[in-house]
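Hi C.,

You asked whether I'd gotten around to modeling the 306-residue construct. I have! Everything is below, sequence then structure, no commentary in between.
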Amino acid sequence: MFGYAVPVDMTLSPEDAAAYRGYYCETCHQLRDCYGVMSAVIVSYEMTFASIILNSVSSDGTDVPVSKSGPLCVLRHSSRRTELLRKLAAYSVLVAGNDLLDDKLDGPTVKSNFGSLWMNRSIQRARSDFPEYDRLILEGYGKLREKEAAGCSDPVEMGYASAQSMVDVMRVMNGHEWTPVLERLFRNLGAWVYVMDAIDDLDDDYAKGQYNPFLVGVEEYQSARSFVTANIYDITDAVRRIVGEIQSAYAKLRPSMVRNTGICDNIIYQGIPTTVRLVMDGRSRMKPTITDMISGKMNRTIGSQF
């Protein structure tokens, strides 16, 4: 539904396409079973990708069968009950809750108030289940707010700051199975999502006067396309460095993966570069975060939507 880390469908094998759909559907069903039907709207491509990666290297990992599609698919129950999938669902709910909190602080609207009410029961349940996750997310949120208030103009620095709370939660979530390679991969994935989001939303942020690291100190602005064109070297260099880190970390992780290498190869080596081109060209087909859906604005202060 939301996100940037997507596979290139036409180059997926039929088996990998079916497996990807299985994980995506199971992500939705885990949210539904653990935190209610309303929480299922927050399923993201990034969350699905995180689930695929972690299920490929964790002792609690599992293959997921393909779910039958249909108009009432969201009402179906999950087919796999593992602690890892439950933890990922809780984390996603808590990130969505903090997205909505940030929107309220920036200026509550009828839609954002409705969104908070709509998700409140799911958020409270996730906080009760995993209070440590909530604490780490809130700490990261506070630090990111401070950097925004200080007017940080480095999108890469902000990207890594945005990814930190996600990395902290993943470290707790995976315990002794968490490795430096996983940390490097997820930190850079989180930073990449943040930077893509910032480029993708240049026009909206400028029009609404919202924080965007690319726009700090910018006095003359015409459009996202002209801004990217004028700053193409710096932007491309920053994005290329992050993507290089993602691919390098993944190459080190890949030998330890026991499943899903075809899907992950596709996303890392084809999907991510394709998304970069679409965003840089202003042709992004990516859909917004839950905050945008509910309140009509993008939020960058929480950062990664894993």
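If it helps when you're writing up: The chain has a mean pLDDT of 84.

Thanks,
B.
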